[in-house]
Amino acid sequence: MRAIVYEKFQGPITLQNVVDPTPKNHGVVVKVTATGLCRSDWHGWMGHDADIELPHVPGHELVGIVAEVGKDVKNFKVGDRVTVPFVCGCGTCPECHSGNHQVCDNQTQPGFTHWGSFAEYVTLDHADINLVKLPEEIADITAAILGCRFVTSFRAVVDQGKVQGGQFVAIHGCGGVGLSAIMIANALEAQVIAIDINDETLKLATALGATKTVNASKSSNVVEEVKALTHGGAHVSLDALGSQATCFNSVANLRKRGKHIQVGLMTGDHQHPKVPMDKVLANELEIIGSHGMQAFRYSAMLEMIKEGKLQPEKLVERTISLENITVELPNMDKFTNKGVLVVDSF
Question: Which segments cross the bilayer (predicted)?
Fold first, then answer.
């Protein structure tokens, strides 16, 4: 099969012919019909993920058709159109038994723990636990951006943040995760403040539902500006980028008893950010992580998409070919794209 491969972290990314995959007894092989390009893939190529073994095929947001089924799989068959959350649970550990597959003790992640979806075919483990059948109403390009940024944002806003109508929600960083969170919070009738460093991106944030915007590169004090716009601070605030500055600001701009949700990956020099712990204590703030979403929670999200309350396809800037990844992936740190890129040609 054709696949995108890198053999060295931060090294050349090439299109190669590699051996077709085979499923484990509990897994499937999926013929990929569309796959999203995510900044997590860039982090992997940079060497920020200890699970990756070289040579490696990245890619973790996908939709496709089941092409081969392991002998122990009961709920899926060849020809089923499916997607999958980027964190796949084992189904047997204590976390999975509690319903928290997104923090499974033995989790697998396509594009990280094993070869991913920047290829014609991909293997997915523990299919009966992790695969999600897609309704006909949801197109491949839409489904291809759900598995990481959109489901992570959905869980962050809905399940972790428990956002309600009328609340002020601040979103720090308007990449794919941040824009998804803006759309979801807006669908819940929250008042959304979008914070970014790019005016064009902030225009897109406004189009997706942000009621106010802050350009952090032009603001003398992001925290105070957000507090002024929210009449005392946000009820819920997300760091959707993952940096020292955005994490601190997201905590610091909360009102009393507010919730900070850490969604953006904290890597490299940003792993251990400064936190205004005095404010956390005095104002009874909550600091909560959000890491993917369980497959069984997809139904609520998919229903909102079918009803038109959520329109993730609006996040797509353009579609590209598999070969284009060799150029687009290493440049993701330049933030030249306002929306999401989706591969739909293999």
Answer: none
Whether residue 195 has pLDDT greater than 90: yes
Global pTM reads 0.91
With contact defined as beta carbons under 8 Å apart, do 176 and 340 qualify?
yes
Cβ proximity of 148 and 86 under 8 Å = yes
Instruction: State the Cα–Cα distance between residues 100 and 155, nearest whole angstrom.
Output: 12
C-alpha separations of 330 from 124, 188, 241 in Å? 25, 35, 18
Rounded-to-integer distance, Cα 222 and Cα 135, Å: 42
Q: Please give the structure tokens belonging to residue 296.
A: 């069984």
Q: 39 near 71, Cβ under 8 Å?
A: no
Point out which residues pair with 254 in neighbouring strands.
234
How many domains, in total, are found in the chain?
2
126 with 159, same domain: the answer is: no
In this predicted model, what pLDDT tens digit does every residue of 67-96 receive, in sequence order?
A: 999 999 999 999 999 999 999 999 999 999
Q: How far apart are CA 225 and CA 172, in angstroms?
A: 13
Q: How far apart, in whole angstroms, are the C-alpha atoms of residue 346 and residue 343?
A: 8
Evaluate whether residue 295 is within a structural domain: no
Q: Which of 121, 52, 118, 130 is nearest to 89 (CA)?
A: 130
Specify the pLDDT at position 306. Answer: 95
316 DSSP β-pair partners: 340
Domain hosting 86: range is 2-134+311-345
CA distances from 180 to 64, 71, 201 (A): 22, 37, 13
Is residue 196 located within the same domain as residue 100? Answer: no
HSE on the CB side for 149, CA within 13 Å?
Answer: 34
Q: Are residues 284 and 337 in the same domain?
A: no
Measured CA to CA, the distance from residue 166 to residue 224 in angstroms comes to 20
Residues 34 and 342 sit within 8 Å (Cβ to Cβ) = yes
In this structure, the answer to whether residues 154 and 91 fall within a common structural domain is no
Task: Say yes or no: 168 and 281 in one domain.
Answer: yes
